[in-house]
Amino acid sequence: MTNPMYPRIFLIGYRGSGKTTVGRVLADRLGWSFVDADVLLEARAGKTIARIFAEDGEPAFRDLESKILAELAARAQHVIATGGGIILRPANRSLLHDSGLVAWLQVSPGLAWERMQADPTTRDRRPNLTPAGGLLEVQTVLTAREPLYREAAHAAFPAERSPELLAADILHVWNGGTTSRS
């Protein structure tokens, strides 16, 4: 399947919003390739995101993240699950918006925290982003990032829905349908 207006689909949203799970379902339905940008980034760096933050600092991580995004934005017929902070740089928001359909998976702080707790790899692979950590961190970071997700996204989708329903909703928009941008 192809749509010349949207030759690729980017999934944005906070940790635990379901970007990887939904992305795989979506890619399968389209017959496209799927890439998790964070997994690619870790493979290229040879270390986890948490180690990159600890050893090289957040600016170095964000530089690598932007470089990976530029590469992925050139790949047609790909569904790309981005890192939760990809929207922090204005250039990334513009590149996302101009390079494909950007679907924002909106997740509540409680659901994000619940999913993060259920994922055994989160603690080892992902750094705390504030001194508080935990649910308070999720609430704080989500509040700060929400306007940036909104700016980058073409459409927003409630992440509490099943991956199959989210994929169907995103395909509907990809095919020219509409959805609310809450």
From TrEMBL:
GO biological process: amino acid biosynthetic process; aromatic amino acid family biosynthetic process; chorismate biosynthetic process
Binding site for Mg(2+): T20
GO cellular component, one term: cytosol
Pathways involved: Metabolic intermediate biosynthesis; chorismate biosynthesis; chorismate from D-erythrose 4-phosphate and phosphoenolpyruvate: step 5/7
Cofactor annotation remark: Binds 1 Mg(2+) ion per subunit.
Catalytic activities: shikimate + ATP = 3-phosphoshikimate + ADP + H(+)
Family: Belongs to the shikimate kinase family.
General function of this protein: Catalyzes the specific phosphorylation of the 3-hydroxyl group of shikimic acid using ATP as a cosubstrate.
Amino-acid positions noted as binding ATP in the UniProt annotation, renumbered to this chain: G16, S17, G18, K19, T20, T21, R126, R161
Binding site for substrate: D38, R62, G84, R145
Gene (name only): aroK
UniProt-listed InterPro entries: P-loop_NTPase, Shikimate/glucono_kinase, Shikimate_kinase/TSH1, Shikimate_kinase_CS
Domain of life: Bacteria
Protein known as: Shikimate kinase
Cofactor needs: Mg(2+)
Keywords: Amino-acid biosynthesis, Aromatic amino acid biosynthesis, ATP-binding, Cytoplasm, Kinase, Magnesium, Metal-binding, Nucleotide-binding, Transferase
EC numbers for this chain: 2.7.1.71
Record-level Gene Ontology MF annotations: ATP binding; magnesium ion binding; shikimate kinase activity
Subcellular location: Cytoplasm
CDD domains xrefs: SK (cd00464)
Subunit composition and interactions: Monomer.
Major localisation: cytoplasm
Source organism of this protein record: Limnoglobus roseus
